[in-house]
Design a protein that fits this description.
Blueprint: E1 9-15, E2 20-26, E3 31-35, H1 42-54, E4 58-63, H2 69-72, H3 75-82, E5 86-88, H4 93-105, E6 117-118, E7 122-126, E8 129-135, E9 144-148, E10 153-157, E11 160-161, E12 164-165, H5 175-186, E13 194-197, E14 203-204, H6 205-211
Parallel strand pairs: 3-4, 4-5, 5-6, 10-13
Antiparallel strand pairs: 1-2, 2-3, 7-8, 8-9, 9-10, 11-12, 13-14
Amino acid sequence: MFTRKEMLNIRYSVFNLFEERSYVAWREPGRCVLIDPGCRNGAELQALTDLLTQEALTPEAILLTHGHMDHIFGVKPLQDRYGIPAYMHPADTAALDYNQVMAERFRMQMPEDFDWTPLQEGQLEVAGITFEVIHTPGHSPGCLCYYEREEGILFTGDTLFAGSIGRTDFPYSEYDDEIRSILEKLLPLDPGTHILPGHGPSSTIGRERTGNPFLEPFNEPEETLDPDLDPVVIHGNLSD
C-alpha cells in the first residue's frame, strides 16, 4: 500500500533585538524540530510554546546554524522544558566564546549555557525529517545550513540572505571561506530551492545566484563582444 508522505510544514517567529527568525518545522503530526530558537525573554518563549501548543507539537531536537547569541537565547529554557538535544558544529565554540563580547557591547544578558551535541556535515534524521547538513564556514567557523532536498527547503542561518551574505568582521570570520561556501555548496543547488535565512525575507537559490549584489562579479552574465570594437593587439612575445 502506498502511503502519501506528509508535506513539510514551517512556521517562523521573529525574536530579540536583532530580529532573528526562529523556525519550527514538522512533517508528522505531533513531532517537530526547532531551528535557531532566539526567544530572549519570557514573553518570547511563551509565544513559541504557544505556537507549539496550538499546532499540538512536541519538539524533538534543536538545530543550530551557528552559536551567535541571537540564535541561541532560547536553547537552555527549551531544553529544560522539553529535555531535547541541541545540535551544533564543534568549530562554533569560537562563536559561543565571543558572545560575552557581544553581550557587553549591546548591554544584554548572556544566553544561558546549554548542552550541545557535535554535528558534522552529512545527513541527519530528526522528527521524521531528513536534513542534509552542509558545513558553510565563513560567518563563523562552524556555520551549518540544513537542506531538506525533497521539498527544496534550505535553512541558511546567517550564511546567505535575500540579497546579502553574512558579515565577516568578527575575529574568527573569514570572507574567502564564506564566498567559497556559498559558491561551492549553496549556489549549485536547484534554483527553485527556497532559502529561509536567520534574518529578513526568504528567497530562492536562483534569485540569489543571479541577483545578489554581494556575490558580484560571480553572478554577472558574461560580456557580449561588440563587433565594432578595435581588435586587441598584443606586442612582444607571449613567452616574455
